[in-house]
Design brief:
Elements (H helix, E strand, L loop, with lengths): L3 E7 L2 E6 L10 H16 L5 E5 L4 E3 L12 H7 L2 H8 L5 E5 L2 E3 L1 H8 L2 E5 L3 E3 L15 H7 L1 H10 L3 E2 H7 L4 E3 L4 H13 L3 H14 L4 H14 L4 H12 L9
Parallel strand pairs: 2-3, 3-5, 4-6, 5-7, 6-8, 7-10
Antiparallel strand pairs: 1-2, 8-9
The structure holds acetoacetyl-coenzyme A.
Length: about 260
């Protein structure tokens, strides 16, 4: 069975759907490896300009597969080298949009936080309940959550396993947009289509500078921003876009 189904709902847009519905899309090693392969493939695919990742209406993903973890120790966890799976998503230069309905828990919430934009249906539930299993997040669940929602809300969620609704997650800054139940994918496709119509090099630089800038001091981040902003003046798409504005026509961009 294919654990990650790839679809292409619009030109330049890829949609990846996690496909273990019987276990709320729990992330087992096979699914993680398929996800890595898909991200590697789509990162290299020059026709793709935006990637959506989603689950189903009950769950985006309920986290790591607990049944596959109960008997394993630290050595096996290290040998699984899950980091290379996450790295494929983290290093993806294309914009990534997570479309969430239902549960995004543990590794599922961490997966959502790997995305650049998170669209949540009203039914979405976010949480890092690892503490209840005697463990803790290991793929950014402490670090990305604190950056998204701040120390005090992150500590509460991480230490108690308490979850957030879509509306709470939006108020806290974890989610980009909340839409009606089961409308997250439709909204994500709309956003992805709009991003795919933008000059791809500008989109890629915005993503890279924003993420890199979060890790360094403000002066360095501003220098990165300036350099990237100036560099974009060398692109063909900058001329196409500006001439399009001046001549009142709708330009299409080549990505060069
Ligand atoms: N791993 C394995 N199986 C899971 C699972 C998971 N994370 N989450 C759900 N399932 C399975 C259930 O065992 C159940 O299987 P059976 O039908 O064979 O009993 C099936 O999915 C449906 O689950 P529920 O009956 O519990 O469905 P629900 O709608 O009542 O509840 C839920 C859904 C709230 C997500 C609940 O299943 C749940 O709490 N799941 C565990 C969430 C969790 O603790 N995630 C963190 C995992 S650790 C982690 O992610 C960190 C890491 O990377 C190491």
């Amino acid at each position: 069975m294919t654990l990650v189904i790839a679809d292409y709902p619009r030109e330049h847009v890829a949609l990846l759907r996690l496909n273990r519905p019987d276990v709320r899309n729990a992330l087992n090693p096979e699914l993680r490896a398929e996800l890595r392969d898909e991200f590697d493939r789509l990162s290299d695919d020059k026709t793709i300009r935006a990637i959506i990742i989603t689950g189903n209406s009950k769950a985006f993903a309920a986290g790591a597969d607990i049944k596959g973890m109960v008997d394993i120790g630290a050595g096996e966890m290290m040998a699984r080298d899950d980091e290379r799976n996450w790295a494929a998503i983290r290093n993806c230069r294309k914009p990534v949009i997570a479309a969430i309905d239902g549960y995004a828990l543990g590794g599922g919430c961490e997966l959502a936080m790997h995305a650049d934009i998170i669209v949540a249906g009203e039914s979405a539930i976010f949480g890092q309940p690892e503490v209840r299993l005697g463990i803790m997040p290991g793929a950014g669940g402490t670090q990305r959550l604190v950056r998204a929602v701040g120390k005090h809300r992150a500590m509460l969620m991480l230490m108690t396993g308490e979850t957030m609704t879509a509306a709470e997650a939006f108020d806290a800054g974890l989610v980009s947009k909340v839409v009606e139940r089961d409308r997250a994918v439709a909204e994500a496709i709309k956003i992805a289509t709009s991003i795919a119509a933008m000059p791809p090099l500008a989109v890629a630089e915005i993503k890279q500078v924003l993420l890199a800038g979060m890790e360094v001091n403000l002066d360095t981040a501003l220098m990165l921003e300036r350099r990237a902003a100036y560099l974009l003046f060398e692109t063909e798409d900058k001329r196409t876009a500006m001439e399009g504005f001046i001549n009142k026509n709708k330009p299409t961009f080549s990505g060069s």
